[in-house]
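User: Structure please.
Assistant: Input sequence and predicted structure:
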Amino acid sequence: MWKRRQVNGSVETPGLKSFIISVGSLISARSFVAISQILVLPILARQLTVEDFGLMGLAMTLVIFANTLSDGGMGRSLIRREDADEVEWSSVNWLMIGAGVACMVFVAGLSPLAAHYFDSDRLVPLLLVMSVIPMFYALTAAPNAEIERRENYSGIAKVQVIATVAGIVFAVAGALAGIGVWALVGQQVMLAAVRMVGIFMLSHFRPSFAFSTQGLRPHLIYARDTLASAFLTVIRQQLPIMMISRVLGQIPLGYFAMAQRFNRLPQFGLAGPMSSVIYVRMSKAQKSPEKLRDIYYAGMRLLSVLLIPSMTMVAVAGRPVFSVLLSPEWTPVAMLFALTIGGLVLEAIAIFFMQALFRAVSRTDLLLRTSIEGVILRIVMVLIALQFSLEAVALSFTLWSLIMVPRHWQLGARLVPITLKGCLAQLIPSSLVAAAVAVTYLWIEHLTDLPNVAYFLIAAALGVLGIALTVLIDRQKSKSALAVFRNTPQVLTPASPAVGP
């Protein structure tokens, strides 16, 4: 089935130093992907239209739904099975490939209906081409699981970086060549295809022509539970895009999709990797509620230092920032970013780590409950907001977080001794500093008349200053928070590969 490295007759286990390097590589790769997405957007935004980005955002919604279904969590299930044999691995592999084929047919078959529903014939060829993406990810689910089981995260990181670069090169070349939205389509297909080739080359897994239903039951049960939560999360994130397109049209959706490309980066680049590391630490301390509380507080404090001052400055100086990064045509993105980023940062700081806690103590029932509640609340709030404006929809994201974060704290308090006062205390220092640097920027802007580039640089400097001041003022508690993660035993299970920027 696969080749194994043997040492004295047993499978070689990577050393701790090698594993720490692998984890660092994985987080670095995620950061590289996030940064590269920001760097390439100014080029794409100047070559493509607002409608192109709206159309791509709508097409990606259907593809992301299909991607979620194509694996179903069975790849993760293979990793946790110590006694899985060749037939079991091969059976799961063929089942996932079958699911990938079904998802490919589903996306392709749905394309005419989607085009009719959203009144956009251009969707049909886009979805027909992009329907191969779920298939690519299904083909690599088992090989990727084998790589993770060997803890070769540095290899996965290299593949991710290479695939990202390939996608970016195609997108930029295509945009400059004038192929329009197909530059974005080609980027996603290239990303998935290069990743597939890289995973195949890296993996030792080679399926046999065997299939047995006997060993599938535990994997199907696991997939049922994890798929439900993942699918609800995708619905919460993607359904507003479909609703905006249906009610407001492609151009408003284009602005909203561009804002989403920016305001999701803190979650993808920082909160995601940090939550993986925090999950490891929580798993090791799952029998100590007090230690779990300390880890949760420490994660909140560290991430708030990095995100709150910096994202506040981007929101306050949004017009010059987005005018310089993108072009004056994209200035409406500034208001949408400012209205959503507060909620998304709060979600990253408080909810991501609480979900890690739920998983660490095997309370996935609470994870599923909050997912259901979050989806219902998001749909209701977006439906109401759509009756007013696109800005109201953006604001509903922040209002959603203001409701769901205390709800997560309430449920978390049943498991560990966290308090509302204790949670808020992790946010207050960075929030106060963020308010101070924001007022400073507004004062400078009021007294001067400078080019947008100058205001962009001033905002960037104040954002860095805000982070430094928060660390300086709250130095002792920041050191204590860092100390929680020193010498952390790391057994990382990384998130599923993200699709595109």
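The chain has a mean pLDDT of 80.
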